[in-house]
Amino acid sequence: xxxxxxxxxxxxxNKLRFVFEIRGDGTRELANVQIGEMLDxxxxxGRGFDLSLADNRDGEILLVGGGIGTFPLLYLAxxxxxxxxxxxxxxxxxxxxxxxxxxxxxxAEVCSDVKIATDDGSVGVKGFTxxxxxxxxxxxxxxxxxxxxxxxxxxxxxxIANKSNIPAQVSMEERMACGVGACVTCVCSVAxxxxxxxxxGPVFNAxxxx
Length: 210
Prior knowledge:
The chain is 28% helix and 23% strand. The strands form 3 sheets. Strands 6-5-4-3-7-8-11 form a 7-stranded mixed β-sheet, with helices on both faces. The chain has a two-stranded antiparallel ribbon with strand order 1-2. The protein has 210 residues and is of the alpha/beta class. Helix 4 runs parallel beside helix 5. The protein is built from 7 helices and 11 strands. Strand 9 and strand 10 form a beta hairpin. The protein has 2 domains: 121 residues, Nucleotide-binding domain of ferredoxin-NADP reductase (FNR) module (Rossmann fold, 3-Layer(aba) Sandwich), CATH 3.40.50; 31 residues, Dihydroorotate dehydrogenase, electron transfer subunit (Dihydroorotate dehydrogenase B (pyrk subunit), domain 3).
């Protein structure tokens, strides 16, 4: 079976970068692939983030990522930095501990600020990304929010955004088999309708979810 993995970055128009965590036999096998070996990839699939969320809106653009959900936000950060060169996004990234912090320097290259939260406080703020977000909501004008990571984190981010009428998008994660909408393994409810995360998503508006 194929593994659904988000694109982390793109380079020179014909190169893709994937970052993933080894969680089972499939990802372990991928991690052992050597230079020169061939991979059969279907990409890109589904619907990505809408870069126009912050168009005609003043304020900061926030990226909220948790764990392996931070990886696809780097490509988004690069794209937003090009679209809005005068107000590059702010990244709020969460990890269990400092040993798991990844891509921080690369986010810093394309973001105006990178805020880190760790469960154990070994680096950055002790706590969760949603704690940082809640504090920023008190003092900052927020134009748009994008989030990817654990469902409980994204749900909290979505509810915070919805309460303040801030446009927000969520990248959902469900078990997938085909990736093209045929097997309906990844169906979930969005805006009262059953949708396929792989084909109709994985990105949805937070207002349609919570």
